[in-house]
Design a protein that fits this description.
Helix content: 10-25%
Shape: globular
Oligomer: single chain
Number of strands: 13
Order of helices and strands: EEHEEEEEEEEEHEEHH
Radius of gyration: 20 Å
Strand content: 25-35%
Largest sheet: 9 strands, mixed
Distance between the termini: 47 Å
């Protein structure tokens, strides 16, 4: 934790930087250039659970022993939609998608091309009336006391809750990068009776006037870097959602 000193006529008082003020003297770009020269830069990930489990899997010092928590708090530095199409059903293996998109507009791989007109973006192209190409949302999160963001890839079943949360913030004139968000999980079930964990969001606190510009600076760097991050954080969703379970149908999107 960084510290600074203030001096008056009598003494010197040490004042520790708390919260996100630890970013005050940290240069993300320079740190990456110096420490990761010749190495692959990647972001650790927070994993959504499968089935009825309502625990997030969080990165830990020992990769073989991750932490698990019902909730955690972080600032959303950056977020954007992604798409992922897997030709094979989920078998537990961590394989990259056959086709993926980092903007939900143009896909790369097989079949690739325009996402909007793709046959796998149509309902009933997947199981139980769902889309074969899954809509997801990637969040770059910074937890207090850490300097490097982690990624949380939200599956289809959690996107409606994210949309509601962001809209609640916007109605108050607040951006998601200006608050600390509390992430939790609840059980949900689709029309076919498949139980899955759905992410929930709540504002924990607003960033202070001193924290906002520090977080904003890191956010801009992450936005640039996010264009080159691959699909390591995307799994083939074991829980299949039908049309009635998805975030919004086309009419809701255009409303």
């Amino acid at each position: 934790m960084m510290a600074k000193t203030t001096k008056n006529s009598k003494d010197i008082v040490s004042v520790e930087d708390t919260g996100y003020l630890t970013l005050r003297d940290f240069d993300f770009k320079a740190a990456i250039a110096e420490e990761m020269d010749g190495l692959n830069t990647f972001f650790e990930r927070i994993k959504m659970p499968s089935g009825e489990t309502t625990l997030y899997q969080l990165p830990a010092d020992n990769p073989e022993e991750p932490d698990f928590a019902k909730e955690f708090s972080a600032v959303i530095l950056h977020h954007h939609p992604i798409r992922a199409y897997f030709s094979q059903k989920f078998n537990g293996a961590a394989n990259p998608p056959d086709c993926g998109s980092l903007d939900a507009v143009k896909g790369f791989g097989n079949p690739g091309g325009d996402c909007k007109s793709c046959i796998y973006n149509e309902y009933n192209s997947g199981d139980n009336g769902s889309k074969a190409c899954k809509e997801r949302h990637r969040l770059y999160l910074l937890r207090e006391g850490e300097m490097f963001p982690v990624i949380l890839s939200l599956p289809t079943g959690s996107l409606k809750e994210l949309s509601r949360y962001l809209m609640r913030l916007l109605t108050k004139g607040i951006k998601s990068s200006e608050v600390v968000t509390k992430f939790s999980l609840v059980k949900a079930a689709n029309k076919g009776g498949i139980v899955y964990a759905k992410a929930c969001f709540q504002m924990d606190r607003k960033l202070t006037a001193e924290e906002i510009p520090l977080v904003a600076g890191l956010s801009e760097q992450i936005k640039m870097l996010s264009r080159n991050i691959d699909f390591d954080d995307v799994d083939n969703e074991p829980a299949v959602l039908s049309k009635s379970d998805t975030v919004m149908n086309e009419n809701e999107r255009s409303a």
